[in-house]
Each structure stands twice: as C-alpha cells, then as structure tokens.
Queue: 4 jobs
Job 1
Amino acid sequence: MHGVATIDSCGICDAVPSNDCVKDCEDVWGGGKILDCNGICDGTNLPDRCNVCDTDPSNDCVSDCVGCKQSDVIGQKGLKS
C-alpha cells in the first residue's frame, strides 16, 4: 500500500498541498524575496500616505493632527492643492 504524501519542491514530505513551497520573485523555491510596490524584486520602495511608491521621504505627503492628508484639508478650504 502506498501513502499519499509527496515531496514538494523544497524537499518537504507530507500530504498537505496547501503548505507546499512556492517560488519567490527570483524563481527560488521557498525563497523569501517579494516584489515591492513598484514591482522590483526585493526592492525597498514603500507607499506613503498618498500612495507614492518610492524611498524618498522628502516627497511624502503629511497628515494633520487628525490624520487628514494635507491635500484633503486644502480641498476643504476651497484652495487648489
């Protein structure tokens, strides 16, 4: 009689397909690299509060003391942002 366990691409032998390893963004089985918000494998870009994806903190939008983005507050005052 044969069991139902198989060896996945990372060498793990079990019968649970939901925990099988997958390739990371460099096609390495079981690797830990992921795509950043600009689609760069193992990149360091992060989205700011205005969803600008880069590593430049000088262009990050700021929030006021209640968490409103600066452009939201300017828009409420009738001013162009």
Job 2
Amino acid sequence: MASVIFVLEENCLSALYEIEIIIFKEHRVNIYVGNLPFSVTEEMLRQVFAQTGEVTVVKIITDAYSGRPKGFGFVEMPNQTEAQRAIKELNSHALDGRNIIVNEARPKTERPRRISRY
C-alpha cells in the first residue's frame, strides 16, 4: 500500500483550516429560544436540548451593564434532523413555569450603531 505525503506551506494550511471551519459551520443549526425564565442557566438549557440530540453551543443573552439575562438565548446543534426534532418537541415546552419559544434563528443582519443619549 502506497502512502502520499503532502507538504503544505503555513499559509496554505491556514487556508485549509478556514475552509474546514466554514464547511463545518454550514451544517450547524442555530436555534432561537425565547421566553426563558431568568432562573434558567446555560447548563439547564443544554440539558433540555441534549434530550433531543447533540448540542455544541448554548448562549443565554445578558444585559451588558447589569449582567442579568434578557430572557432569550441560542442553542447550536450540529445535526439538522436533531435540531428540527428539538424545535418541534420543545416549542411551547414548560421550563421553570414558562412556556419557551423555540424556532430556527434568523441570520444576524447588520444594524446601524445606536448613539447613546448619555
């Protein structure tokens, strides 16, 4: 059996790594989770979604100044089928006394910077 060895320059290897990240990101599904109770932690949310499949990222959005949760977050799942099952099964699911809203996140759009009045 013959083996082939490729020697790549550092910048080519970096470019291949970036391509790999882009390909991997395309297959991940970003899920919006709204109406979250303020008592829910990222670990609790991870456990709920892990019941339907693999979870790669969980992020609960917090206020920049107070650090308090804003009541929504995002869950990222690498498998499209598992993500769709999570959306279907967990939308309107009761979590700490509130029915959460679960749907596929919309792509982030560019918004103009807000000017502080203070």
Job 3
Amino acid sequence: MPELANHPVDSECLETPKQLASRVGLTERQIRNLIHSRQLEHVMIGSRVLIPAGAFTRFIEAKKAMPCQDETRGLVSVGSTNVSASTLLPRALDGHGRPRAS
C-alpha cells in the first residue's frame, strides 16, 4: 500500500467527465464543452480525458462575479419616494435628440 504522506491524495486524483458531471450536477456534454473550449483544466492520457481534483473548483472561482462596492452604494430603489413620477416618463425629443420645447 503506498504511503499517503509522500503523495498527497488530491494531487493524484483524476476523474472522467462523466464522473465530474455526476458530482457537480451538470451534463457530461457541458463538461466536455468546457474542456473543448479550454476553460476547464484537464489532462490527456492516451485518448482518455481526465480532470484533476480541484480543477472544477478553480474554474468556478475564476468565473465568480463579485459585486462592485461603489455601484451598490446609494442606489435609489424602485419604490423610493425621492423620485417624482414625472422624471420616470420619457421626454419627447426633436429630430436632433434634444428635448422638445413645451
């Protein structure tokens, strides 16, 4: 039996696209599309495609969108009483994109 202390288990664990798909709740085709588009880390052993342990987690972390803190401050909510109803209506424009005189 190999010594686990000399070989970290995670660095040697590989799974097939089918196994990964089943584990993360995607289809095998979706996983293969990520591999084909080179978005998901993988290795080829002969003609077999295998995904290293942690590759899907790294993919998710790289794709995660973080909200911009500056854009979330001071936004007026839709139901706010600070905005009058007249400012929400589109203005009539003249042929040059300027507001039409009343």
Job 4
Amino acid sequence: MILITGATGNIGRPLLRELARAGAKVRALVREGATNVEGAETVAGDLGKPETLPAALDGVETAFLLTPVSQEQVAWKSNLIRGGAGSGSQANRESFGGWGGTGFAFDPGAMAL
C-alpha cells in the first residue's frame, strides 16, 4: 500500500492516477469531509493532528509526503513519520519520499526537532 498526502493537489492527483494505472494499491490522506479520490482508498486525516495519522498508515509500505511550503512543514512531516511508528506500517526511512527538502531523519524513538 502506498499512502499519498496531498493527493487532491496538482502533483498528488497525477501521481495517484499513474500509480493506480500501474496497478499499485494507493491510499489518499484527505481532510475530514473531503470527497473520495478516484483510484484510491481514502482515509481522513490531518498532518497537524498526529492522532489522526496511525490509521492512515496502517499497512502502508511507502508514503509520499507532499505538503505545501509552510513554516509547519517539518512538524507535519514529523507527525506522519511518528504516526507510522505507532501503526502497522511497514514504511521506513527509505520509503518516505516527499516534495521539498526539510532534512529530517527517520528515527521515531529518538527524533528531536
């Protein structure tokens, strides 16, 4: 399973479409109340609310972390990685990809930001 954040945006939507076309199992992280995303399982969550993320990451092997440029970007990405540590996710630091460089390391037990 591949999780895509930002799956309804200008980059995430075509990425999701191509992955689905290639036969990949894709899950889209969407805001509460958002409509379903064609070609993907959808799960409601918010990168700013860490408690919503473990369910989104359950069973995920790879996550594409796409966030807008913001002062909150490091916190949002860190929340997702920490959420993966508390879920059934098989994702590891090599399988968390993203747009934009925030330069954090994946070590949920010892991450200090």
